[in-house]
Amino acid sequence: MAQGWPFFLLVLFSCVSNHLVNGERVFLFPQSHKVSSIVSKRYRTAYHFQPPKNWINDPNGPMYYNGIYHEFYQYNPNGSLWGNIIWGHSVSTDLINWIPVEPAIERDIPSDISGCWTGSATIISGDQPIIIYTGADKENRQLQNIVLPKNKSDPYLREWTKAGNNPVIQPVGPGLNASQFRDPTTGWIGPDGLWRIAVGAELNGYGAALLYKSQDFLNWTRVDHPLYSSNASSMWECPDFFAVLPGNSGGLDLSAEIPNGAKHVLKMSLDSCDKYMIGVYDLKSDTFMPDSVLDDRRLWSRIDHGNFYASKSFFDSKKGRRIIWGWTNETDSSSDDVAKGWAGIHAIPRTIWLDSYGKQLLQWPVEEIESLRRNEISYQGLELKKGDLFEIKGTDTSQADVQVDFELTSIDNADTFDPSWLLDVEKQCREAGASVQGGIGPFGLVVLASDNMEEHTAVHFRVYKSQQSYMILMCSDPRRSSLRSGMYTPAYGGFFEFDLQKERKISLRTLIDRSAVESFGGGGRVCIMARVYPVVLVDDGGAHMYAFNNGSTTVRVPQLRAWSMSRAEHK
């Protein structure tokens, strides 16, 4: 072991002052030297998607067509703050290396003159791509518009033409708020053979996915009931609706016949995160029926428990899988973003599927990301006793892919699970941080750490015993990630159920990409994306990475593998 945990604690707590803020004890690091400027190329990611400059947010209309992946995105061509939104467009053959092309949709008709907002792509009649998106007019009404490729023989589909009958859907109807009506989904075939889409809306003050149908995808009629609505929330942004087969990691194409036994997923963006329900699409009533209805939306399942929003999925016909993308914003200040000249990235595209129990979505980085791996290092048979901190050397710690299996030597000392923690998991991660000793855990990784640990980000697990099973808490904690002031650094976290009688190994995969730390726990049961801005990245001090255990129960590491990651091409 390189350094014991007591040293970690000594450094962590001897170099801080502590104060009570809003009833919570907050530790503040003294800034012993002038912090370097945040305007540095070292914070631009090397293999996460981002354009060369300016602001981006939601991924839009992802699709695979004639051998090319298309990534559209909300883009401000004039600066690094939100505004003047159009659709940027990049293309790829592998989801990793991207070529920017001309903007696909610009603000040039009355129904999108104030913004070309989020939408989706559908491939109809076998080979006709079509995009439906939200535009805002001068009265701040939100309307749905259509564009089609001008030349389908152009492999990059550089130019798009707007339909002559735009807007194809207007915000009319009882209970509809015209300024809360946006983000149409990819189309699917309904029980009558007609196309369906859902549009996020506020209906009578509540969140809803409104249902529309069409024979030709150009002329739309509102169905007299929503696909689904809930009085537990208000406006739903960026709805997504897709089919999944329990235990099958392959994806399903909504425009094809859905096999028996399939479930459907309704995903929505609200409360600064992406949530979802699993249920069935009832063909008779033409509605989504969740398997369970939770009145408290804090308990709704989440796609990602960190900095991840406005996700959009698509069926990848090349490899027969469903892929989901999400937007990750900056957690510095707006003035920092202006100075940097860029803001926003997209998470690594993930394969998404339903677990064998039909209860939870699982996610994993697309396999193409492994093409960037270089210089593998591996360790086998490590044993982490209480207080151990093992340094992982020989890899580029600022651009890495790390996979670790943790094996429990005993489950006798698991602390008792409190179900009320599910209502505020971030609070539990704050109170049960990496420095707080437990029965089983915390154990995990410390990444992007400075020499003296003044800066570090901890990604870790704790094991709790509930009445019927074991609950694993996964936290990604960037609260000590940077000496910079004014950063937004919450402690992110999520719980997942785990059968420790059958599975003694808990896996962690963390993708470190300069200012991005993207982690997948328990085989993709919990995913957490975080953004960090360590001074050590800019000052070339060399960041460190460790495996650690601060629980009373010894944890084995049967295998730890790490790779340096090459830079992807974002020309």
UniProtKB/TrEMBL annotation:
It catalyses: Hydrolysis of terminal, non-reducing (2->1)-linked beta-D-fructofuranose residues in fructans. GO terms for biological process: carbohydrate metabolic process. Its EC number is 3.2.1.153. Residues 48-365 form the Glycosyl hydrolase family 32 N-terminal domain. It holds the Pfam family Glyco_hydro_32C. Keywords: Disulfide bond, Glycoprotein, Glycosidase, Hydrolase, Signal. The keyword Chloroplast does not apply. One of its GO terms (molecular function) is fructan beta-(2,1)-fructosidase activity. Belongs to the glycosyl hydrolase 32 family. This is fructan beta-(2,1)-fructosidase. It comes from Lolium perenne.
